[in-house]
Amino acid sequence: DTGVSQNPRHKITKRGQNVTFRCDPISEHNRLYWYRQTLGQGPEFLTYFQNEAQLEKSRLLSDRFSAERPKGSFSTLEIQRTEQGDSAMYLCASSRPGEVRVTEAFFGQGTRLTVV
Amino acid sequence: GESVGLHLPTLSVQEGDNSIINCAYSNSASDYFIWYKQESGKGPQFIIDIRSNMDKRQGQRVTVLLNKTVKHLSLQIAATQPGDSAVYFCAESRASYDKVIFGPGTSLSVIP
Asked: Smallest CA–CA separation between B46 and chain A, in Å?
């Protein structure tokens, strides 16, 4: 499978613990996006990278959240001191700016986080 | 703030009929408008997009219409099939390289 891969698929954690998610984008894609989705809602933008540079962060991304893409390939999203409100599906997407359909971002299946 | 939203949260259609999913947007600066399909347990899947300087674009069994006068976007699915059952999101982007902002979604249910 050469699509966007996210690990783990599911994560249950106790409130106050730290969690880290990983995203492996499609290999030739240089843009990588993180979104958060709660039940019944559309995905909310969190942050995105072009290669290893983090170009934009949403105000939703509090100080407890940090994302990295150290070598311009895979990315990690860490949440420190998790809260119940962090429970959501965390989606990763990648795209390669080009001439046609550059908005055609490819999404992974997401990591579902449950904070208990 | 400006956002993208949907008129109808749920839609049920008979198999074989055409489906129309509507969306209202408020950001006049958006350059692209996009439709995504999301099946249960999966990430959103790109369906079709349209640039702001167009009013219609057709794909395979799908047509997107853009009315900038009333800031309205619609997705038409011809001959709806059971496999079309999913949540559909309209979304917008300021530019071809920019992030995508999603609306809240419409659930489409196809009745066999």
From this structure: 6
Q: What distances in angstroms separate CA B4 from CA B74, B78, B100, one per listed residue?
A: 12, 24, 11
Task: Give CA–CA dist A26/B46, Å, rounded.
Answer: 15
- In B8-71, the DSSP E strands lie at 10-14, 19-25, 32-38, 45-51, 56-58, 62-67
Task: Select from A48, A91, A103 the Cβ nearest to the Cβ of B43.
Answer: A91
User: What is the tens place of the pLDDT at every residue in B51-71?
Assistant: 999 999 999 999 999 999 999
**Residue A12 CA neighbour count, 13 Å, CB half:** 1
- Three-state secondary-structure class, residue B73: strand
Q: Are B44 and A107 spatial neighbours (Cβ–Cβ below 8 Å)?
A: yes
C-beta atoms of A93 and B96 within 8 A:
no
- Find the closest chain B residue to A97 by CA distance: B97
| Segment A24-40, tens digit of pLDDT | 999 888 889 999 999 88
